[in-house]
Amino acid sequence: MQQNSVDGYVWILLAALLWSLLGVVSKFCLHAGVLPLETAFWRAGIGCVFFLAHAGLTDGLRIPLRHALIFVLFGGWGVGVFFGAMQMAIKLSGGATAVVLLYTAPVWVAVFSRFLFGERITKRKALAVGIALCGTALVCFSGGSLPGQASLEGIAFGLLSGLCYATHYPFYRWWQSRYSTASIYGYMLLGGVVALGFGGPISINHAPDTWGWLFALGLLTCYMAYICYGQGLKRISLVRAAVTCHLEPVLGTLWVWLFWNECFIAAGWFGGALVLGAVCLLTTDKSGE
C-alpha cells in the first residue's frame, strides 16, 4: 500500500473519531434544553466561523461569486437538512441509532462515484459495503439504542441524514482541485446556517456549560472533522473513504453507552461488529483500486 494511501486512511480515521463525538455531545446539548434544530444551527454556525476565518487567513474567501453561491445553495441541503435531520434522529431514536443510520451513505456514494467519476466498484469494495450495510440494518431492526422508544420518524430522519451525507463526497471531490476545504465548507456552512435559521427559535440564553458543549460540536465535529476529511479525500477514493468512516458509528455507540447508558441488544452489537469488520476488509486491500 502506498504511503499516500496510508496517510489518507489516517486522516479519514481521525475524521471518524471526531464525528463519533457528535451523538454524545449533542445529547448533552439536548438534555440542557437546546432544541434539535437550534443545536444543528449552532454546530453549523460555530463551525462556519472557524472555516471562514481559516479561509480568510489563507486567502480563500476570494472566489468567483457564482461558485460561492453554488456552495451556499448546496449548503442549504448538505448542511441545513443534513445537520437538522441528524439532530432530530438523535432526539427521537438515540445517538447510537442515529449515527449508525447515517452510514447508509456508502450505497449512495458508490452510485455517485461510479457515474460521476468513473470509479470502478471492485468485488472487495462491494463486499465491504454489503457487510457494512448488513451491520447497519441489524442495528436498526434490533430496536435501536433507546429500548421501548423505537421511532419510525427517527429512523426516517436517520436515513435522510445518510442521503445528505452521501452527497458531500461527490460534491467535495468535484471542487477540491480548485478550492481549499476551508473555502468550500466556509460557504457551504454559511448556506446551512441560513437554512437552519428558518427552522425555529434561536436563543443565546444558555448556561456556560451548555455553550461549552455547543462550542465542542462546532469545533470538533464540524471544523476539525471536515478538515481531516478533506485531507483524506485528496489521497483515497470516495468509496474507500465512505466505508472507512464506518468506524464512526462503532465509536459513537461506545460513547453514548458510556455517558448516556444507551445500549443495543445482542443483534445491535453484532451489527456494530460487522461495520468494523467492513472497515478492516477495506483497509487491508492492497489492490490499489
What does this structure look like?
This protein is mainly α and 289 residues long. It has one domain. It has 13 helices and no strands. It has helices spanning 3-19, 22-31, 36-57, 65-93, 95-101, 105-117, 123-141, 152-175, 181-197, 208-233, 238-244, 247-260, 266-283. Helix 5 (95-101) crosses helix 8 (152-175). The chain is globular. It starts with a helix and ends in a 6-residue tail after the last helix.
Q: Short summary of the structure?
A:
With 289 residues, the protein is mainly α.
In DSSP terms, counting alpha (H) and pi (I) runs of 4 or more, how many helices? 13
Number of domains: 1
Strands, count: 0
- Separation of the first and last Cα atoms: 10 Å
Layout of helices and strands:
Layout lengths: L2 H17 L2 H10 L4 H22 L7 H29 L1 H7 L3 H13 L5 H19 L10 H24 L5 H17 L10 H26 L4 H7 L2 H14 L5 H18 L6
Helix pairs in contact: 1-10, 1-12, 2-5, 2-10, 2-12, 3-4, 3-9, 3-10, 4-5, 4-8, 4-9, 5-8, 5-12, 6-8, 6-11, 7-13, 12-13
Any key phrases for this structure?
single chain, 289 residues, mainly alpha, 13 helices, globular
